[in-house]
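Sequence in, structure out.
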Amino acid sequence: MGYDGLELACWGDHFDVDQAAESIDYCKGRWEILSENGLTAFAISSHLVGQAICDKIDSRHEAILPPDVWGDGDPEGVRQRAADKMRLTAIACRKFMDAKPDKPDKGGKSGKVGPPAVVNGFTGSSIWHALYSFPPTSQEYLDRGYQDFAERFLPILEAFDAVDVRFALEVHPTEIAFDTASAERALAALGGHRRFGFNFDPSHLGYQGVDYVRFLRSFSDRIFHVHMKDAWWGHGDGTVGVFGGHTDFGDARRHWDFRSLGHGDIQFEDIIVALNDIGYAGPLSVEWEDSRMDRIHGATEASAFVRKLDFPSNSQAFDAAFDQ
């Protein structure tokens, strides 16, 4: 399909956190599978476990969590075990990235090259249910939610710092940060911890009416990873709003839906320009989702779409070329 690598998920059969943290042979085995298929890896993703760290836990979480994190389902126990697993994920990520096979760098010397180690993920939120602010929700109530987030995530970030790994929150509905204002508040709650940044995904911002290009420029030093994912909005029948109307994805009534890259309303050219402007040098990771399109067709098309967009940035002032 034309991809350079994979963003490995910490669920299913992609990447087992416990095995990776304990066994260098397991990490090497992951790299062997990737290498045999001409692929590399730039990040791992722990969205499902991350969701449980700050959430109000209910029966839905059991379906997404590993049995050792769910345990007996006691909410605070689930949150604590999810936090422990996330700390272990930092160790697993470090060991996996350190096991990357050497390859020649531009100078012909052997060495590990690539962006810093990153774990993408979610945080969950103890205050997402208060989104609409009714019953009336005070700022003090919301402050307690951000304090809860900080108390739970600062020890996790210290564990990430100890092994030189970054955590990249995918700004997303149901998380402590779901738009620019809430992302600023989350970062402030952590005192600007250097290991906390963002996995930029415009698809979760555009349909909300959030300026996703401005998000990049606002957090230029905190963009640790980028998801290329498209969405459209304003294409429904007028009966379902931004909150989704309790409809399923792909329902023709919906105000918004995810689309294969290039088939939605996200302006990716503007995103590439902004990423070049802020000096982002990490991967562009296609997160493909489109209820209406064949997956293999769409993912193949999306790879070509991103390659066409990803033009090299200029290294000098435009008119400086005329001085030569």
